[in-house]
Amino acid sequence: MSINQAFKALSDPTRRKILDLLKEKDLTAGEIANQFQMTKPSISHHLSLLKQADLVRDEREGQHIYYSLNTTVFQDLLKWVLQFQQLPEGKDHHE
């Protein structure tokens, strides 16, 4: 997982909304696209970037491809962010 790719993917509000939708349940690209006022190719591009960042996974079931969150990457990101809470004494404020 590239932290840079993950943060780049998270920087876009549309991709964050897609992640919010996938938090509820796995969805197909069509179901995701129905939640937005944009073309299916645009949604496909956002899903591709989320997949490249390893934030979502896709799995084919018959004619459909279902997208789901990859919670492992979120745990890794959270671990990385939380390490800054444990700075040595005197490093957490300006003099």
UniProtKB/TrEMBL annotation:
- Provide the protein name: Autorepressor SdpR family transcription factor
Q: Does the keyword Transcription apply?
A: yes
| Keyword match Manganese | no
Q: Which SMART domains does its entry note? A: HTH_ARSR
Q: Which residues form the HTH arsR-type domain?
A: 1-89
Coiled coil regions, renumbered to chain: none
Organism of provenance? Paenibacillus validus
Entry keywords, A to Z: DNA-binding, Transcription, Transcription regulation
State the source organism's domain of life. Answer: Bacteria
Q: Name one Pfam family in it.
A: HTH_5
Which PANTHER family does this chain map to?
Answer: TRANSCRIPTIONAL REGULATOR, ARSR FAMILY (PTHR33154), TRANSCRIPTIONAL REPRESSOR SDPR (PTHR33154:SF33)
A GO molecular function term, named singly, is: DNA binding
